Amino acid sequence: MLVIKDLKVKISEVDKDIIQGFNLKINSGEVHAIMGPNGSGKSTLSHAICGKEGYEITGGNINLEGRSILDLEPQDRATKGIFLAFQYPLEIPGVGNLSFMRTALNSQKKARQEKELNPAEFLKLVKEKASHLSVDMEMLKRPLNVGFSGGEKKRNEILQMALLEPKLCILDETDSGLDVDAMRQVSQGVNALRSPNRSFLIITHYQRLLNHIKPDYVHIMVSGRIIKTGGPDLALQVEEKGYGHLIANQKN
Amino acid sequence: MSNVYTEAKKGIDPGTIDSVNSLKEDYKYGFSTEIDMDYAPKGISEEIVKLISKKNLEPEWMLTWRLEAYQRWTKMFEPDWPMLKYEKIDYQDQYYYAKPKSLKERPKSLADVEPALLETYAKLGIPLKEQEFLAGVVGAEYASANAKPKVAVDAVFDSVSVGTTFKDELAKLGIIFCSISEAIHSHPELVRKYIGTVVPRSDNYFATLNSAVFSDGSFVYIPEGVKCPMELSTYFRINAENTGQFERTLIIADKDSQVSYLEGCTAPMRDTNQLHAAVVELVALDNADIKYSTVQNWYPGDKNGNGGIYNFVTKRADCRGVRSKVMWTQIETGSAVTWKYPSCILRGDYSQGEFYSVAIANNYQQADTGTKMTHLGRGTRSRIVSKGISAGKAQNTYRGLVNIHPKAVDSRNFTQCDSLLIGNKCGAHTVPYIENKNSSSRTEHEATTSKIDDDQLFYCLQRGIGEEDAVALIVNGFCKEVLQALPMEFALEAQKLVAISLEGSVG
pLDDT class for B148, splitting at 50, 70, 90? Predict the structure, then answer.
């Protein structure tokens, strides 16, 4: 599904590579978690995979289903099935939530030469998906993310994920700013989307999200590289002993 | 009418972008039509003014009125205070009158109109199909009325009006909707009473020029107590080359009446600049309500700033009556140069003026636009919502005046000016003047300037939305409050226009 090989990424404003020789392979249906301290390059990685402007790839490659995606525009990567649940979903005043989602879905369908949905078909689909995530009509009619609470914003991200049915879902610190109940709701939403054809890359600081979404692999990222890979118990180890302990081990 | 109002408030169909996608063209109105034209000689002089008056078979008083305006104009100077740069206009190198030859005899109905003209309008998407109703197919009229809201249309091609639809049906209610040249003949008492009373002939350089040489335009009179049952609309089209268009519109809403009026404008793509200097006068008597919407899409010039319309327009409403109300809504996407300040004189006590504007300037377009709200009566209210969008190398200026006179006790104004910049070579300027000479009155002014945020754009792209669609989406969101003020049938058209006029502005 996703193969990242020896990736090096620079941010335009910064002089040195934030990501330095990063390797990762995610097979279909797998859930990978990346944990790491602040500034380890986790969010840079997610933006680089999605092709955000200003994230310069200085080496290595990213392959999706056997093809490099480095020459693709962000919208084309999205159409190929890459979805990023943002850490801070953007507010767009005056643009209805529903209208935004339909535009997104139909843009992707159009690019894939599939039949676009008319407003009635779309509304039916949204209602079905939204009911699982406690997103009501009122929230769908509001301007996109404007005045949404932290929990509402994240639930809305997961709703978009459910609608767009991506192959690779990247969750960038989706647990930040969530209370216990909201975290449970969001996790249920994510778990409902788990399938043999869909992979997940979960970026988080804390182990607690992984109590709800059980990963197959946990990677520890420090200074732009994976320094250790393990199973769910690695996350517990981090929770208990902190990153410092792992970094110290690495140095030895 | 009230129905239309409530519908419009509900907002815009959520599906914008798919319709936008179907319109991937630069300027779809850029065709010109081969029609034999009857021109007056180039240039302006007393003889030309007389000739225009004669061609329209005008009465003596109208000719005198024009000539007085012309004399005054020769002593005036073109204003140089706007934030606009354009090549000096040679007023002697313009045609002031052009008329399709086949219209020598005023057409009795659309059936008499040259087919090429009608084809032009068909290309513009103007519902002139109502011609069959004019021909007397009364049954058909009511059948189709249920299908969609009716719009009565007056179409002005170069200098002359080519036909007005739904005239008979409107006449049953006492509503007069016709070309102004026709009104001068058939309702001279109304025209004489009101013309030049809102925008005097001495008002400004371009209005005075218009008073001397205006060739046609629309006239509307809504009698006391009548709510106009359909949208009234005029489409203006400049076709002939080097021809100035000087239309004059006069709308009078008598006591307790209500009307909603829309004007649309397009022109062919030509690499020379064309002059357009219109005058619109609105009169609202006691309790009258006028809603005037403009979708201005004159040819803006090419990507390098060649050609395009010079648009110098004077629009003013006089809220003469107690509790009268005027609402201006404008979507300004076209023209190389726009100079336009639709204004309200709030003379009647408790009268209200509103101004909602979206002005988009892309490439080398320049817009200097805004409004004047003059509060004279007590308890008067005004509201200004202006959304300026600049892209490419364009300059966009909001210029406004809120003037509260000493006698206008307990008056209120609210102004909101928002500017959105796309790219880093364009400019946005806000020049608001506020003069409050009354301690019981209050004004509020809010202004913001923002850029389309890279993160917002990335968020849209990451969902699979293409760059131009994303910009259109964000900009339409930015303008939503104004777009919602448009009559519903035109809101979607305006959304598409917003998208089209910003094509090529990113990347």
Answer: very low
